[in-house]
Amino acid sequence: MEAAHAHESGTGHEHAHHRAGIMRWVTTTNHKDIGTMYLWFSFVMFMVGGVMALIVRAELFQPGLQYVQPEFFNQMITLHGLIMVFGAIMPAFVGFANWMIPLMIGAPDMAFARMNNWSFWLLPVAAILLIASMFVTGGAAGTGWTLYAPLSIQMGIGMDLTIFAVHILGMSSIMGSINIATTILNLRAPGMTLMKMPMFCWTWLITAFLLIATMPVLAGAVTMTLTDRHFGTSFFNAAGGGDPVLFQHIFWFFGHPEVYIIALPAFGVVSQVIPAYARKPLFGYASMVYATASIAIISFFVWAHHMYVVGMPVAGQIYFMYATVLIAVPTAVKVFNWVATMWRGALTFETPMLFCVGFLFLFTVGGFTGLILAMTAVDVQVQDTYYVVAHFHYVMVAGALFSAFGAVYFWIPKWTGHLYDERLGKLHFWLSFISFNVTFFPQHFLGLAGMPRRIPDYALQFADWNAVSSAGAFVFGFSQLLFLYVVLKTIRGGEKAEARPWDGAQGLEWTVPSPAPYHTFQEAPTLR
Amino acid sequence: MDSCWAYRLACCFSARRNCSLAPDAAAALMAVVATISLGVGLAFAAVGAWPVLPFSGLEIIGLVWALLAMRRHAGDCERITLDACRLRVEIREAGRWTRHELNASWAQVVAGGDGSVRLRGQGREIVVGRHLDAQGRCSLATELRRRLAALRQGTA
Prior knowledge:
The complex is a heterodimer of chains A (about 525) and B (about 160). Chain A is mainly alpha-helical and about 525 residues long. Chain A has a single domain, classed as Cytochrome c oxidase-like, subunit I domain (Cytochrome C Oxidase, Chain A, Up-down Bundle). Chain A contains 15 helices and no strands. Chain B is rod-shaped. Chain B has two domains: about 10-15 and about 75-150, PH-domain like; about 25-75. In chain B, helix 1 (about 25-45) runs antiparallel to helix 2. Chains A and B meet through helix 6, helix 7 and helix 8 of A and helix 1 and helix 2 of B.
């Protein structure tokens, strides 16, 4: 799809009328500024969550208790999960959405620019609450990111801060998703029908509706936890006639679609990047759209595969097993389409493509272990072991995080006007790819051998693979400093990027100059 | 030029704001989302977890507000009517109509340095073509000038 006329920039009316200094960022309603803030925020949280993961891995380097007490270990596990999911990965993709969706659909900004500002500025408040919870009496929540009852009902004030933070994060997500859905639906340029939209917009539109459908469930769950703790209700308190298992049902009704809330925008990124470096249109565009929608719909009907061992009728187990396996079908359609897009393409492997091919390989591994875990009989054996930890890190880190890195390298010329250092970018990829596998692949062995998750100490038989895993984790963690260096270097200078730095890249976003002017598409482009 | 952006050239020119979601489609979408979200809330209420329902309700209120806010401006348009002696400009914004009338014999079409088109006359200046792109505004200005000149020469 091409714009009928190139974007008019550099013609004298591209002045950036915005405040200077800190107030620019506090008061901005510009989608590019807000996208930038989301991305920096998510990187800072990624580092904070990463440090927590390294504390966990340092403790697990050897059997026995070396560095931290078990309570603090549990707090690190919990905060690492919450921060990575809600503070790092979700905001990163909202950042990409903010930056790129208006450019991709030819809109001047997001539909509700002021609400966009509020959605962002709620995030630091929630982050402060989460981190502050470590310093109150009793420390942070030690329940794991799932905040399971009855432990969540018994914890100290740190749990209240966590509940408040989750509420604020949910508000931010809801405002963000309403904004993104309204923008995509209402502000598309004339001629851009839904079935001509870039896949990244499609995946975000579907994700926005997933968020709209699931966030009230999370809000309800944490509110009930709060009222059980302080207002005498007994939703989850067995002593008062409540049911702790109800919390698990409610949490996973939100929690499983949440996996796709993270994964679908990652799929969108990969669907933008692979065609650009294969120099071919995306194979099976319509089937990609339908597969994305199918994944989103089915994700509502599989939540109890996280709960096979809590007590469930066999019929229920069988239903959830088959429903979960069904998700593999549309997911396989997507993987097939990405591979078919590359088939006989004029492939080159710049850093974004490397991260996306890495994503494709590792996400497929994570998907297969997901299928294994979907089997009730197997899951009963490996429930709450390191096999599960390995599985979801293959999905979350290799899936979402690798595609996020790919997205940054792909779009950073548009954001900064400079090309990144390809050599360092590739070094970042290979360090991350190898160290990621060194960290998480041995965890499959640990899980199959029976090592439970969320423990600071373990039997001697698990020592070797834990040492390997911890060594990999430290390399992976420190590799991300290289990413920071590459990004800072690109912002400060480098080879000038053209409007379309990748010759296979298609779409309206590549018709505007690099760096993208402060205001773009103030008049909607006409598509032909 | 896409039909929603095009001025239909007769004695009446009209243009409306670009809005890619039709009001009927917005209403249908809202109904589906509300049904799903409230359905989930009601299902949880039925098993005793009623606090999910108020959050579903709040969120649907937020979504309805967002779509209504967009819909308020979905009908924004401009209509310029030229008859034997009057040049009438009608602007609809957020459901409110503003009407201006100029004497066609004295009205002038002025192109601003910023690419805008203004109609000037009787001490007033009215910006027109706000829903058009630069090319569309240029065409509008040319056509209005031609028709006003023809009117003055009595050949319209």
